[in-house]
Amino acid sequence: MDQNNLLLNRGVAEIIVREELIELLRSGRKLRLKEGFDPSFPDIHLGHMVGLRKLRQFQELGHQVVLIVGDWTAQIGDPSGKSVTRPMLSAEQVKANARTYMEQFFKIVDKGKTEVRWQSEWFGKFTLADVIQLTGRFTVAQMLSRDDFDARFSSGQPIAITELLYPLLQAYDSVMVQADIEFGGTDQKFNFLVGRELQGLMGQRPQQCFMTPLLVGTDGSQKMSKSLGNYIGVAEPPGEIYGKIMSVPDNLTMQYFELLTNVPDQELEESRQGLADGKVNPMLLKKRLAREVIAQLDGEAAALKAEQHFEMVHQRREVPEEIPEHHLPHGVDRVDVVSVLVNTGLARSRSEAVRLIKQGAVEKGHEKLPESARVVQIKNGDVFEVGKKRRYVRIVIDEK
Question: Residue 346 sits in which domain range?
């Protein structure tokens, strides 16, 4: 695949300013690539992977990633289009979240080419005079031009003064690490532009703003988000990732290929046309997508194992050898299914267990239990199967 196309066009929503960025790349200088994260939420999903893959592509050209841990701004909160602020975190929570985040971050980004910085390195020394000097460089009108602030102000919803500080503090990060490019989603555009302006005011070359698209979640309608439950986490077991990718609506397959893999554009266009003509099997295409994604995160062997598990459980309906067991006393030949599901964690409560049975989501020996089933006949080795994800438990009746 053409390197410039992969770098500057594919998986890119907007670049400010594209011509300046191209000039920087042609200069041969080692560029500093800024990526900040809010330690309020430690988990990374495939939506984040879109931007992190872009960082990795720049690293492979010899550039330096600077990862900023927002340990100081975590005490303020960035609405990012939300109507409420985020709660203040303790220092212990920040450190724990940052540790988890970085473990996942470095599944995608090269750790050896990444510089990790904590905001408290500079903000921990800030005085009131420093804050006043920083805020004096911008006007309230500039801050209220941010879409979510403007909407809340117009509707009479409160905006804390601390919230107005957030874009300035994020911008100051860019000054302190002398960022050449800042990376993130399109929802960060305003903050990136403030950073660009502040750098210029303080005598630095303004950073470039590199924004990646928002990946649609597994529900097929809204952006991938943990709070919406439509996400695929990069730290999830390969088998879980594989299964979730296979559940993605067919019409999103090509978007996922484009944003999450390096499969050449020409090949993607052929697949896109094949889907439209009915010459390509959507399932086979999604299987390849799942392998491509898992191989990046956990290696080729893990991808192959995840596929074999999926085919065995979901296509051939075979029961895996290693599944949880539920032991019963010798002589028992009937069992309360609701209790089994709750005691083995296949249902969170008795009411959920009853609902699963009524929905036909519980099987014994590949046969759905009747809606009214509560107590059923069992024998040693019987297997209960629950839900579309095929979760199992094997009944083991103890010997005397």
Answer: 325-397
pLDDT at 47: 92
Specify if 222 maps to a domain: no
In angstroms, the first-to-last Cα distance of the chain is 66
Which CATH number do you get for residue 136? 3.40.50.620
Q: In CATH, what number is assigned to the domain containing residue 374?
A: 3.10.290.10
What local confidence, expressed as pLDDT, does residue 83 receive? 41
Q: For the chain, what is the domain count?
A: 3
Q: Report d(CA 396, CA 383) in Å as an integer.
A: 9
Give the closest residue to 179 by CA, choosing from 12, 315, 33, 278: 33
Do 145 and 275 sit in the same domain of this protein?
no
pLDDT digits (tens, 9 = 90+) for 137-187: 888 888 888 777 878 888 888 877 877 888 888 999 999 999 999 999 888
Is 61 found in the same domain as 17? yes
The 10 Å Cβ neighbour count of residue 316 is 8
Mean pLDDT for 32-38 is 91
231 within some domain:
no
User: Taking a C-beta distance cutoff of 8 angstroms, is the pair 246, 287 a contact?
Assistant: yes
Domain boundary among 275, 290, 315: 315
| Average pLDDT score, the chain | 86
Phi, psi of 304 (to 5 degrees): -65, -40
More confident residue, 383 or 51: 51
